[in-house]
């Protein structure tokens, strides 16, 4: 069985830690079995390895998330990068064509699709493998996993099965219909009908998906589909495919499953109440503080709350109210990300100013891991000033290589090739100045220093 991991979307429900470049699945607020900080994507990737499925997986994502994915789960992971964000159906279609055209997967192989932001136990992946059996049996076109609900929740979609013994396919049940997030009273009625939570995990035969792409008048070849990506409907897989497919089964799952999409659900799975610099008073019960800044934060006498502090902002919220966060952030939607992980390390924006329509300035502190490099590149519009704060490395500026260490400065005019290789861990303060400071003003030139 092949696996498609869906890691798209920008997600602001975990603001201020999540932003357009660092979505919720990349926040290192969980703990690994060794007690080390771990993100949702790192947890799922580790669990796939334990289930002997990691080598069968590709990750569908956006260009903005490629660097942080490589940073967190390794540069060898195969990524299917969407030319633009267009919802889950286009992402799955492009990934399916990648498996066929690039990796040579046969049309009869089963493919399972999983989100990266669900918190499940290891045995869940054994259940995922069972989807392959029913798909390859040819009895259904689509096979899903349905989580047995613990309460009538309005936060999830529901799968309503046909509760007729002859409709069962082994442990699987035929699906009657779907219900998007209902009100709690309706959810209670659905539970009496044997409904399951829809956890977003399903499987199909690769050829069946390729046929669906071609039925839309689009090519199943990967490169051709990539070039035609804007023609794919901007729609979820549920609406485009699942709700229009008649032959579907659902495999019940009774174990632990949780969507860590809001602060109240995420903090339930955190084994530390305090991450970063700060203090929580003893009478602040069931309160979590996550602080990414180098300033102290004190929480006194506030219970059932989450306090999150990052370069992007500060959140103080009652946990029960935290799902409303997205509603009140519309005014901040266009703010540039102030923190980002990269394959070479990370950076934090310290200051940003627009002086007039032709003059912007941005200052950021960069941390480059020992042995890592900022590849050779140039900028058409902006100049940069590098000040080495800590460590030692080798810089390339306009063809000139030189050793740099604490206190050294480098002025990089527009159009100048530059790169940096860190011999030790390095910290560099970078000041950018120009008429327009955008990620698009970047010309990659090669490996550069080293």
TrEMBL record:
Can you name the source organism? Cohnella fermenti
A GO molecular-function annotation: mannose-1-phosphate guanylyltransferase (GTP) activity
Q: Report domain Cupin type-2 positions.
A: 365-427
Family annotation (InterPro entries): Cupin_2, Mannose-6P_isomerase_type2, NTP_transferase_dom, Nucleotide-diphossugar_trans, RmlC-like_jellyroll, RmlC_Cupin_sf
**What positions does the domain Nucleotidyl transferase occupy?**
4-270
Q: Name one GO biological process term.
A: GDP-mannose biosynthetic process
The identity of this protein, by name, is: Cupin domain-containing protein
């Amino acid at each position: 069985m092949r696996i498609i991991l869906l890691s798209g979307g920008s997600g602001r429900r975990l603001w201020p830690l999540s932003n357009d470049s660092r979505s919720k699945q990349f926040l290192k607020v969980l703990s690994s079995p060794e007690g080390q900080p771990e993100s949702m994507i790192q947890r799922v990737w580790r669990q796939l390895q334990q289930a002997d499925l990691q080598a069968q997986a590709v990750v569908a994502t956006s260009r903005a998330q490629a660097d942080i994915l490589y940073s967190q789960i390794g540069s060898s992971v195969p990524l299917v990068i969407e030319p633009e964000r267009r919802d889950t159906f286009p992402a799955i279609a492009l990934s399916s064509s990648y498996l066929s055209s690039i990796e040579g997967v046969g049309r009869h192989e089963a493919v399972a699709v999983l989100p990266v932001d669900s918190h499940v136990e290891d045995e869940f992946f054994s259940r995922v493998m069972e989807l392959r059996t029913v798909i390859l049996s040819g009895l259904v076109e689509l096979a899903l996993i349905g989580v047995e609900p613990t309460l009538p929740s309005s936060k999830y979609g529901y799968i309503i099965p046909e509760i007729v013994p002859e409709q069962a396919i082994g442990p699987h049940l035929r699906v009657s219909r779907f219900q998007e997030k209902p009100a709690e009273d309706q959810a209670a009625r659905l539970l009496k009908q044997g409904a399951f939570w829809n956890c977003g995990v399903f499987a199909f035969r690769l050829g069946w998906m390729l046929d669906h792409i071609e039925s839309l008048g689009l090519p199943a070849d990967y490169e051709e589909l990539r070039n035609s990506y804007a023609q794919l409907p901007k729609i979820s897989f549920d609406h485009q495919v699942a709700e229009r497919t008649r032959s579907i089964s659902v495999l019940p799952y009774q174990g632990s499953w949780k969507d860590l999409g809001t602060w109240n659900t995420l903090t339930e799975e955190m084994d530390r109440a305090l991450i970063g610099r700060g203090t929580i008073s003893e009478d602040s019960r069931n309160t979590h503080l996550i602080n990414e800044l180098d300033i102290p934060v004190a929480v006194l006498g506030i219970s059932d709350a989450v306090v999150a502090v990052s370069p992007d902002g500060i959140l103080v919220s009652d946990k029960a109210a935290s799902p409303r966060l997205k509603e009140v952030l519309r005014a901040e939607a266009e703010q540039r990300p102030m923190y980002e992980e990269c394959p070479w390390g990370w950076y934090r924006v310290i200051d940003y100013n627009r002086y007039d329509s032709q003059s912007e300035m941005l200052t950021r502190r960069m941390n480059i891991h020992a042995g890592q490099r900022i590849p050779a590149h140039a900028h058409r519009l902006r100049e940069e000033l590098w000040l080495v704060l800590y460590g030692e490395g080798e810089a390339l500026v306009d063809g000139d290589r030189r050793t740099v260490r604490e206190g050294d400065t480098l002025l990089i005019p527009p159009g100048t090739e530059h790169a940096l290789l860190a011999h030790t861990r390095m910290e560099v303060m970078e000041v950018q100045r120009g008429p327009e400071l955008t990620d698009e003003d970047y010309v990659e030139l090669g490996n550069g220093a080293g």
